[in-house]
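The data are set out underneath:

___
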Amino acid sequence: MNLQRANRFDDVYLFYDPITYQDNRPSNALSSHSWAIGLTFSLPVFNRNQGNIARAQSNVVQTKLELSSLERRIVSEVRLAERECQRSRDALEQIETAILPRAAATLRRKTEQLAAGKISADDFQGPLDDAAEVTQSHRDAIVRHRRAMLDLNTAVGLRILP
């Protein structure tokens, strides 16, 4: 925009003519010697580069709006990534503190009952499948939490979580 304002006025030219000889012999007058100095510039009466100045101002306003929109989008992405990281951590903690110990205790109890002959191998298969399902959900929760941490690191642009 400053460039457009500077271009409102054309360049100013200064010239100097060190010697000028005017031959007046054909008119039977004395010949003359002279020098000259001059300055030329244009006066922007009608076109003062107003269109380009207005376009530059419009570009500045548009760029500021785009920057504001980008800042809001980044803040939103960071908040969303932080929320997802918090939720995945809470889910992982719930699995590790409540579900996993209960499933391990049930599997241990059923294993003892199988070893003692109180239940058959077919009856043991159900708790074994349940334990495998809990283990798989635990692994899925770990993966989800790791991805959420990666998304948060990506949104922030720094590695803040392992």
